[in-house]
């Protein structure tokens, strides 16, 4: 009986941790297919998730977000908060935004996890069905 209870508890914790997105994730360049940066996603005291570029793996065209239109304008790409305000809803994280530092555009964001991969979808805020999904890889 103890083995069954232990197995159930272990499975429950594995399932809960599986749906988490906190950690360091390698982004992949859409055009080249090569690793571009490392983004660290954390949960802040407001209960929402945020992601910041902590390492650049390729040299960006500009060192700052020249095309950003909000408080990130002209801020360094390294250290830039690109994900803001995601909320967990079941097995997905949504309701926040993601910015593309290359073009400065902000999109609605939805993230789901599949093993050691994140499916990160950026979409037009008013048309969430129109968007693009990237796959990010867990940094171990």
UniProtKB/TrEMBL annotation:
Gene3D superfamilies referenced in this protein's UniProt entry, alphabetically: 2.40.128.520
Ranges where the DUF2147 domain occurs: 23-137
One matching Pfam family: DUF2147
Keywords: Signal
Domain of life, per lineage: Bacteria
Signal sequence, start to end: 1-19
Keyword check for Calcium: no
InterPro entries: DUF2147
Family matches, as PANTHER family: BLL5882 PROTEIN, BLR1215 PROTEIN
Protein's recorded name: Uncharacterized conserved protein, DUF2147 family
Source organism phylogeny: Bacteria, Pseudomonadati, Bacteroidota, Flavobacteriia, Flavobacteriales
């Amino acid at each position: 009986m103890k083995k069954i209870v232990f197995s159930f508890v272990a499975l429950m914790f594995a399932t809960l941790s599986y749906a988490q997105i906190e950690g360091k994730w390698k982004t992949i360049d859409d055009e080249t297919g090569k690793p571009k940066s490392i983004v660290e996603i954390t949960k802040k005291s407001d209960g929402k998730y945020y992601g910041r570029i902590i390492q650049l793996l390729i040299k960006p065209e500009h060192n700052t977000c020249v095309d950003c239109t909000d408080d990130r304008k002209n801020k360094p790409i390294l250290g830039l908060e690109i994900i803001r305000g995601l909320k967990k809803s079941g097995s997905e994280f949504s309701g926040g935004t993601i910015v593309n530092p290359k073009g400065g555009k902000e999109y609605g964001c939805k993230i789901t996890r599949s093993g050691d991969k994140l499916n990160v979808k950026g979409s037009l805020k008013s048309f969430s069905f129109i968007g693009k999904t990237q796959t990010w890889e867990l940094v171990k």
